[in-house]
Amino acid sequence: MKPANIHKWPRRYSEIVQIQESFLAPKADLYGSVSDSGLVLGIECAFRESSHRVYCAAVLFRYPVLTEIERSLVSAEIPFPRNPEISSFREGQVITQALDKIEAHPDLIMVHGEGISGINGIGIATHLGIMYDIPTIGCSRKIPPAEKPRVRRQKHSQSKVVRDSREIGVALRAKEGVKSIYIYLLDTRSVWMIQHNW
């Protein structure tokens, strides 16, 4: 996979802010579409701060049968210290290295992290969605208390996540008796897919 929209990976905080404001923010699109061939790319990163390493796993599978098509594992040096304002730049570069090894083109990306709910509206899901021009869902374990919706305890129960009267994601109870997961969107049709085909 190669990015459709490329930017240089910065070395200074000021360069990050410039990329967020002039390159990423103007390209955010909440009204794209998702094709139905069923190729979904899942991405997860893990940090080992003691050794200054970040590890990325990317797995492409076919939905809904969950057949694995491709996988990629990459590690790299952490480029920036921990800072919520630049979180997508801490893992973005290693993710692109992992995606370079994926040959097929997914219809949808799911990544552990925030999307438009992130600071400045540019979480890792937003960042990847813009770079690869692919609808992207960010899955998070945390949510601001003011936005936390009530979700019934039954399996597959869900509720909208709303900010400033705008739907920004879905809270989903994947199994009965477990905490909800919060799925933020870059593409509103991604939430439709979750609601109707989960």
Report on the structure:
The structure is a single chain. The chain is an alpha+beta fold. It has a domain at 13-144: 2-Layer Sandwich (archaeoglobus fulgidus dsm 4304 fold), CATH 3.30.2170. Helices cover 22% and strands 30% of the residues. The protein is built from four helices and eight strands; from the N terminus they run H-E-E-E-H-E-H-E-E-E-E-H. It has helices at 13-24, 87-99, 124-132, 188-197; strands spanning 39-48, 53-62, 67-77, 108-112, 136-140, 158-163, 166-172, 181-185. Helix 2 crosses helix 3 (124-132). The model is unreliable at 187-198 (pLDDT under 50).
What's the short version?
The protein has a domain at 13-144: archaeoglobus fulgidus dsm 4304 fold (2-Layer Sandwich). It is 22% helix and 30% strand. The protein contains 4 helices and 8 strands, in the order αβββαβαββββα.
The CATH class name of the domain at 13-144 reads Alpha Beta
C-alpha end-to-end distance: 26 Å
| Mean of all residue-level pLDDT scores | 83
Helical coverage, percent range: 10-25%
Give the name of the CATH superfamily of the domain at 13-144: archaeoglobus fulgidus dsm 4304 superfamily
| Shape-level CATH architecture of the domain at 13-144 | 2-Layer Sandwich
- Which runs of at least 5 residues are low in confidence (pLDDT < 50)? 187-198
Biggest β-sheet: strands ordered side by side in the sheet: 3-2-1-4-5-8-7-6
Rg calculated over all Cα atoms: 16 Å
Number of helical elements: 4
> Could you give the order of the helices and strands?
HEEEHEHEEEEH
* Beta content: 25-35%
Largest sheet data: 8 strands, mixed
Task: Indicate the overall shape.
Answer: globular
How does the helix and strand content classify structurally? alpha+beta
